[in-house]
Amino acid sequence: MEGAKLLGAGAATIALAGAALGIGNVFSSLIHSVSRNPSIAKQLFGYAILGFALAEAIALFALMMGFFSFSYFTNI
After folding, report:
1. Is the CATH code 1.25.40.80 the one for domain 1-73?
2. Per-residue pLDDT tens for 51-73?
3. pTM, full prediction
């Protein structure tokens, strides 16, 4: 039973991989867009930071839920 609890807590953090891919996609798109139109680089950077913050928030929520489920199920 203990292994299942730990496996469930670990599965709650799978969203971290998706958030990492999302952050990479945001900055990859920023580089492509700035190379096509350098005159709006400052505006695009603001949008990229917004996208980064939203993706990072999802990662932090997933990590928090993983920690909560681990501590709840293991009675730490």
Report:
1. no
2. 999 999 988 888 888 777 777 76
3. 0.73
